[in-house]
Amino acid sequence: YGSMQATAERRGFGLASRPRFLDWSRRAFVDGHLLYNGAHDSAGELVAGATFYRHGRRWTYSHAADDPRFRRAYPGAVRLVVWEAIKGALAEGREEMDLGGVDVPGARRRPESGEPAHGMLTFKESFGARWIELTGAHERVFSPTRYAIGRIAARISAAAGR
């Protein structure tokens, strides 16, 4: 969780609280829906790790994190973790490996060179992934006032570290 939280802060995405994240992850892992691959150094310290969802005929790349202290010593650690997951999906006879989206925030288009998401796109393409344009997730708002209050409360909670 520590590596994932550091990655979330560095990359600007939200993450559930430690108890909630670990509880959900443990239950999903026990039920066979969540897979975890990790790479450790010779002393057993986590260098990089990633989670994948198992569903239907595919595995879907969920989250990944690495420890910046090890990037020089193990420059391909995240790549190794993803490659091992691809091999695992193939060993299970899965037909697809979904490496997830790399949208440009607010644009719904392929990232261009120089944009922050372009590095993630080239990382995923290095495994043979291809860009597929999708509409993405949508929310249906029934009560704009309640929705706005909830969004504000979530931001305050995140800023307070909860």
Produce the secondary structure layout.
Blueprint: H1 2-11, H2 18-30, E1 34-40, E2 46-55, E3 58-66, H3 77-91, E4 96-98, H4 116-125, H5 144-159
Parallel strand pairs: 3-4
Antiparallel strand pairs: 1-2, 2-3
* Biggest β-sheet: strands ordered side by side in the sheet: 1-2-3-4
Elements, N to C (H/E): HHEEEHEHH
Estimate percent helicity.
25-40%
Oligomer: single chain
Approximate shape: globular
Rg measurement, Å: 17 Å
Main β sheet profile: 4 strands, mixed
Strand coverage percent: 15-25%
User: How many H/I helices?
Assistant: 5
Sequence stretches where pLDDT stays below 50 over 5 or more residues = none
Straight-line distance between termini: 14 Å
Averaging pLDDT over every residue, what do you get? 88
The tally of strands reads: 4
Structural class by secondary-structure content: alpha+beta
Could you characterize what this model shows?
This protein has 162 residues and is α+β, with helices and mostly antiparallel strands. 40% of the residues lie in helices and 18% in strands. It is built from five helices and four strands. The chain has helices at 2-11, 18-30, 77-91, 116-125, 144-159; strands spanning 34-40, 46-55, 58-66, 96-98. A four-stranded mixed β-sheet has the order 1-2-3-4, sandwiched between helices.
List the keywords.
162 residues; single chain; 4-stranded mixed β-sheet; alpha+beta; 40% helix; 5 helices; 18% strand
Structure described in brief:
Helix content is 40%, strand content 18%.
